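Sharing a chain and its predicted structure for anyone who wants a worked example. Both blocks are below, sequence first, tokens second.
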Amino acid sequence: MYKYYKYSILFVLISVLVFVSSCTKDLGNYDYKEINEVQISGIDTTYTALLGEPFAITPELNFTKSTNGDDSQYTYEWIAFNTDLGLLSDDIKKDLAITKNLDLESLTIPPGTYKVYYRVTDTQTEVQWSKSFMLVVSSSIQRGWIVLNDDQGKARLDMVSIIDTVYQPIHDVLDYTGSALKLEGEPLNVACYSYDPQFYGVYVNTTGNGTTKIDPLTFDWEDTYRLSYEMLTNVPTDFGADFVQPIRGGESFVYKDGDVYYYYRPFSIRYGVPINYIEGEEKPFKASPFIGTGYINILYDVDNQRFVRFLQRGSSSLEMPNHNRFDYNTGKDLVFMTQTPYNRGEVFAILKDPADAKLYLARIRSDRAIGQRYYDEIPEESAQLMSQATQFAISPDYGYIFYNVGGKIYEYDFNLKTSKLMIDKGSDQITVLQFEQYSPFSKDLIVASCDANGANGKMELYTVPPVNGDLELNLSFDGFAKIVSIAFKI
């Protein structure tokens, strides 16, 4: 056994010496050439940028053998890797450019933190040099007003972006972000609400595209964002609702041709059978496009001229409970109805008697119980003006009813039963009049206007003072076309 180990160790030592000797002799058999190495500088360690904005970096390249180098001998690439390891592999890598300098007219990668590699490759030797840096991409479209325009018969989506306290109007925001969605046909409306905890709903509705969501972070688009993919009923792929009516996060209505569909994500209730029917009745009723949303939702039955209610998680409508001020079976036409936070939550409804054209104001409690709070005729002088109105809005603080006739905006006080002229825009059109409940400016009256030709659109926000004080201009933005719809993206 001792001899076996002795000779084994001797064999290993001889083998190592022979190998070292061979390597030493072999060193003289190669002719090594120096390559033109590239030294990269002029790139910072961290950059911040805005989605949709230009972004550029000009690196400095120094060559060890040549001061200039031969650019045709090299290839270049800029590659960004999202540092969020929870992303799918297809979303981690983003190719930015294959040019020597990075010069992007519009940065289109989603908001996030990226590690970016700048790589220079010698095509003859295939040797590669690289430099890395961190890139933090923020979104200029994260928060603000979504504005849908009629630009001489064509739909155009704009935005008033809010970054901290800076307001930035972005006209044609889909082009600005490089979105795949190209709007077609006439504009109808927009809506924003938390459709899903993982996907905030920004809905755009046109006659050519139907109703579709867009990506809330990038405004990009794909076919599965269409509203038809949310519907359980058999509808065309490019299905277009008349409008999407948010109720609260994860809950909403869709209205189409007198039918109302209900969505409630926490209980996996999808838009299925219309809810505008009452069990036991022979047929569904035609619902008004005005819906009073709240903990208790109020619809108006156009066929039978009556208020009905719909409860959360329900599958059909219900008759209203007992009344004390007016009959819910009104026998009148509904002119306007909306929910407002006024007085802890009320639905305001303006009704018209078809027999004598008189107008009436009804206020219905709509928080966690239902009940009648007010009902009275609107005096003739105000009623004559109000019957010509094209837009209505209710002040959440004071319950004032704002309405416009042509370019004039009036304020109706139901306590004083009088109307007061608040704004006169002459020959200009008033195209939107609303309060945006879920926004930082929920108490400001939003007024959208344009000239008689449908151009030179403007969006203004007015503070509403108490005791019928004059409106005070808070913010103003221009550069729009004819604004047809506004929603706030949180």
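Comments welcome. Residues 1-28 have pLDDT under 50 and may be disordered.
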